[in-house]
């Protein structure tokens, strides 16, 4: 990618569009319980935003500007962004499982989800909080982490 | 009295927790970790003993997967206690002994952690009353013993032995699993109901409640009737038996046991005397009540008694051919296990009770004398520096105490009165004799073979003992005395053996009586087994058999070298060699695998795609044909105009893909197809699907473009042969997908599941501030994904994570495996697999 320069237009548009895509994906994640959306779609959308960055700016600059370089990983490829991505899907899986285990502690079967209505919240008056949102976040992080890992590893080849 | 759940579960968990803590302890204690491990084993022993002393018999029940009748149920009775005590008790001694033997060795941390986990698994096997739990612990023992046998990682022989034991015992375990599933299936057809509980009755749960467990053995008559009615009796018995006979190294699966001596000697002592191989005979004893009707002569006896006596003889002969002391002991182990299997195998009115006594008593005796002898073998190897029988002799001078210990154990192994092995072997003779008397005719072969095999047992036992007598070879230098940590365990075991030999009633009263009662079919009244030295004065036919064995053995011993040479020559002949079958089978698999490499996994994406697509399409089509699925009648086209338009564009896109001149054009036109499908979803009012399709399509496009940079811009010319091939593959896949869609959409179940989802997904009309019985969300698709079917989704995201991990590891490690065949081909396969499975995970999420 790097040997071919991208145009100024593409760079500028990307710079504007990427935050919007990420914002939309977060919105999709949060509204997923009641409107179209959900962890999976949101995750893929976030990954798409990153993919766009990769295509336009190249893999090295994304790694440099977005993610720190933790050194000392035994496997050479597990440095830079890839390490962060793989952490993301690890964390995601952990969130999903821990969320599921929580219901066991309360005496329900694994992964039972519940809904709580919070009353008298400023601005919203009544807020619906579904425990499934936590699970959704797990899905989100796994998808983002996994897709970006694949993208980074394959892209670096 | 009912067991205490906390104590039982604690005893079971202790070794595993101990294993998990080993790294920490090792850092603090170093080599003295041996004593820590011994303390853990002692703790398990003590916890179990507290239950045993209280006279507990019953089950502890923890629900696991109630819908499938799977639970973590542990049953404590004589047989379970016997095996668990042997595993933990011999464990204590083996750990103590290791402190001396493993001094200065590498990999001690791994060694102790694995050995602890192994011991825990064995205790699990002994206590598990649920077939699934039993299978789980069973395979744990296979895996941990694999690690233990392969302890010397860099030694190729060690690797060969570890693989061999793993392949044979795990494969046998899989047969056993099928047998277990058949048992559960058959139980489902009776009034027991589908259950995996093998043995049970009243059980206490963790919360202290008492529940009634329906178990297979508790309803053995019902089970036998159902098994016979469905024609599954013999298949199930053989399948379950496969697990037992591979694990306990019966002929023709005896090959792995002698190789397992590649493990450090304490491990061998543990594996061969008290644990791994005992799992097999334990299972035979445990399922015996299920398969053994009282009368008439059952299939059970024909299979197990015959196999047991046959393989007892074969392996005893092989032991005579051994040149290495551990090899001798290993074959002898196989032989004695066969004796136990034969004992448990006897049935009919004459053998049902005597056989159980034989099996249970010999389990005990064999563990005691064989552990002693292995520990002695370790002392010899450690102090004399060699294990070759030819090079050893006259060790008595330097190691008088060890010589005394060996004499007690070896005479017990030989079955010489009044040492411990004599009593249980005498029981075998008695059983065989009475069964032959009852059945007559060809059944007289049973006692004849028992005597014949025992002659060889006598022979090799004497050979082992002779290491301490006679002249000391000059080549053997000064032999040191063993340290106390290595001497104390065998001395203790020999003391027990001696006590049991002189007063057999001690062992019977302590545990053997209750253990053999567990191996009796329900309803058979157990008599008290009484043995004492006085019995030796009683002239009986089976005492005659014992004397005959000793006389023949003593006579044959003068010709030992001749026999030894003959057996060695026989072992060199492929057909009679113990390793030949295994090696040939593995080699055949290797050749078969190479074919797969050549024709399927060629490293070319084309071939992969062809193989996968054709097999999936073929399977699907074959499935439709086999189930006789009928195509729905054609009812005319009734779709709205916009949809027709969108689909038309998609079709045009599809044609454009075929006609595209370059990769980039191909990918771009392909995405036309994808976007049209997304629009179709919008029109079909499925916004969630549309959104997913759009985003995935975009991402795929970007990834394609990333990869395309490396590919040549233009397609190459296609030959006629490839063209035809491609048309065939594409055609088959197309037809399969076409029929799948038609059939899938044509089916309309009477009770559609969507109603349930539509009703329970949204916020219910009446609800409190907190509720969990409904989804509580407006987006049914997402509620299904994260709530109703969250477990599915969890599986899918695990697949996605796994795919990413494999890409990461395979790409990162690609450079390392050069020069070897396997890692390379795996890399190639993984790279192609991973993105595909990632996409699958995503696609099923839609």
TrEMBL record, chain A:
The keyword Membrane applies. This is Sodium:proton antiporter. Keywords: Cell membrane, Membrane, Transmembrane, Transmembrane helix. Residues 9-149 form the Na+/H+ antiporter MnhB subunit-related protein domain. InterPro entries: CPA3_antiporter_subunitB, MnhB. GO terms for cellular component: plasma membrane. The chain crosses the membrane at residues 12-32, 38-59, 88-111, 131-154. It comes from the Archaea. It is a multi-pass membrane protein. It is found in: Cell membrane. Coiled coil: none annotated. Pfam families: MnhB. Its main location: membrane.
TrEMBL record, chain B:
The chain crosses the membrane at residues 6-26, 33-54, 74-99, 111-138, 166-187, 226-245, 300-321, 328-351, 363-381, 401-423, 443-462, 483-503, 542-560, 611-633, 639-658, 665-684, 690-708, 728-747, 794-813. GO terms for biological process: monoatomic ion transport. It is found in: Cell membrane. InterPro entries: CPA3_Na-H_Antiporter_A (IPR050616), MrpA_C/MbhD (IPR025383), MrpA_C/MbhE (IPR046806), ND/Mrp_TM (IPR001750), Proton_antipo_N (IPR001516). The keyword Transport applies. GO terms for molecular function: antiporter activity. Residues 649-712 form the MrpA C-terminal/MbhD domain. Residues 67-112 form the NADH-Ubiquinone oxidoreductase (complex I) chain 5 N-terminal domain. It holds the Pfam family Proton_antipo_N. Residues 817-846 are annotated as: Disordered. It is a multi-pass membrane protein. Keywords: Antiport, Cell membrane, Ion transport, Membrane, Transmembrane, Transmembrane helix, Transport. Residues 128-435 form the NADH:quinone oxidoreductase/Mrp antiporter transmembrane domain. Residues 747-811 form the MrpA C-terminal/MbhE domain. GO terms for cellular component: plasma membrane. Its main location: membrane. PANTHER family: NA(+)/H(+) ANTIPORTER SUBUNIT, NA(+)_H(+) ANTIPORTER SUBUNIT A. This is DUF4040 domain-containing protein. The lineage of its organism: Archaea, Methanobacteriati, Methanobacteriota, Stenosarchaea group, Halobacteria.
